[in-house]
């Protein structure tokens, strides 16, 4: 009782004046607020310092950065002590572009730039208009021309020779471009009141989501020739692309269905009252609202596909991960796979991190707006 | 009112009953189902023709034939003279072995990191954030290959790392001391499991009594008695030997102990670290979803911090955590099929070998689908049951 009455009647912050060095104050509140916290901070700092020093010694101080072409002797000498970054300048053309004809590699490089430009433009809120769809069609067409060639004086390059980063981007982007309309149709089908269409959609989504992507890819690579009339064969890359589209369609359908559920009933009823047909109702009233609701989870799904395209390694398609794995088969450089994996991981990380940052900013924006 | 109405309900003619809306619906359904059936028939007839051209008989008769494929790392006894069916069983056991242990470890690690993300300690929360961000944004297959390369780069058995006495880490994998489990040890373990079941009932009874008179009754003496003391008593009475088998280096390899092959170990590490990053985010958002007012109210009641966390915050956070956790568990199980990339023989890898040896593509893929659909349904069933138990009971 006395303790309470003895307390001076002032706000808490005023009783403990904020004095002293701001750095010390920051350390005190964030690292040493209590004794166990202080002990934890010291232990973590020690572990972190050991890790950072170890990495700097291996990755920077003792690393070999450049060697004469096709000579890994300097790297072998430093093995176990330092990283062999020299393997990257030695192999980067193969890792990034696979077996694409060496002199023509500006074409896949330009395609990668076009992809990045397309992603950037699609991320701008101000450009979310119908014209964006035409832009996608135009850019994807341009990329096809660049990669295949055969027109405009470009030599023809068969898709067997494509490889590396463009293949990863193609699998992911075309997977999204075709999987997205498919996902919309299936999501609408799953919420339709026509029993046959509803059950077909449910079976499709649950079957695809129930099995691993690896088995779908096996199916595409092994069973597809069995499914088709004899003599009819399509390319391995295209078969994998179809598997990825079917896979993407099922997952996107579930995300879009979430958005459809978030559209209030009144919107449907209002559209019905205006006498709009089913397709016009969905195209003009329901879908624009539904998709806006689920853009952050859509971006997250896209990150997941982007990573999942690496699974085509298992059926032997030359995406970025497969070219990396192939680059280190070379006996002279075989022992330096960790460096190559770190390089490729950094490329994947840059793409995925940018997308996840973007998704988070969208979430913050919509939280702010509502 | 309506029953008094003497008039029969108006009978409409068929063409009127099927108004334009229903007719349209019927048209679309017939169209879509027709296309689906046509596609399936087309694919099916092609497949039958192709299979007969290649002299492959359809059906599951091949499962009875001798498999002749070596399986290096298996939980159950297997040799290459066994049947394909048995090879499949070994594959399923291998998948379950990595999935179940992976789910348990990923949940523990993910929860710890999720809580660290919310720590007041700036360094700890930043480190946890970096861990989550890095692992989430790199493909799992790449991480798996990375871990596998690191495993292979470990020293040979002679120069194995020995972090603790009896534990060896070398390019032969991780070797741990083991306790051989025979029939007598199994009895003791059964007693412990029984003890857990009985304790569960006792706890419900204690809670029911507390609901009636409001007096808290400690449950831990029962837990101690049923789960620790009782099995220990059985062990002493039966005179069960609990010897520890220490691994030893003989020649180029280890004898005794429990060996985790490098493929298995790499797969487990990759799955656990990758999934734990996602679980950490789920746990963090779950805890953050509990309104501040709940903490403040618990504080105002003068509850202890551990009690507050256990009885006030976690039960509410769990409602947000459990549904997305289910899909992470399903993902981990499906991702275990990446094993095929490093040569760990899970069910997908064995089905793939079978497919190459026998050409029975449809049957092999159907078996994979059946196995994964069963596992998925099992996990969803369990998690839905658990979710219903912890769901908010509203009046």
UniProtKB/TrEMBL annotation, chain A:
Record-level GO BP terms: amino acid transport
Primary site of residence: membrane
Ranges for domain ABC transmembrane type-1: 165-359
Record's GO cellular component terms: ATP-binding cassette (ABC) transporter complex
Cell compartments where the protein resides: Cell inner membrane; Cell membrane
Topology of this chain in the membrane: Multi-pass membrane protein
Pfam families: BPD_transp_1
Gene Ontology MF, one: transmembrane transporter activity
Transmembrane segments: 38-60, 105-121, 133-157, 169-189, 210-228, 240-260, 298-318, 338-356
Top-level taxonomic group: Bacteria
Keyword Membrane found: yes
SUPFAM superfamilies recorded: MetI-like
Keyword entries, A-Z: Cell membrane, Membrane, Transmembrane, Transmembrane helix, Transport
Protein family: Belongs to the binding-protein-dependent transport system permease family. HisMQ subfamily.
Annotated protein name in UniProt: Amino acid ABC transporter permease
Protein source organism: Bradyrhizobium hipponense
Automatic annotation (TrEMBL), chain B:
Organism of this sequence: Bradyrhizobium hipponense
Membrane topology annotation: Multi-pass membrane protein
A family per Pfam: BPD_transp_1
UniProt-recorded Gene Ontology molecular function terms: transmembrane transporter activity
Database matches in Gene3D superfamilies: MetI-like
GO CC annotation: ATP-binding cassette (ABC) transporter complex
Residue spans crossing the bilayer: 26-44, 84-115, 186-207, 219-244, 364-386
InterPro entries: AA_ABC_transptr_permease_3TM, ArtM/GltK/GlnP/TcyL/YhdX-like, MetI-like, MetI-like_sf
UniProt keywords, alphabetically: Amino-acid transport, Cell membrane, Membrane, Transmembrane, Transmembrane helix, Transport
Protein name per the record: ABC transporter permease subunit
Subcellular location, principal: membrane
Protein family: Belongs to the binding-protein-dependent transport system permease family. HisMQ subfamily.
Subcellular location(s) per record: Cell inner membrane; Cell membrane
GO biological process: amino acid transport
Ranges where the ABC transmembrane type-1 domain occurs: 92-383
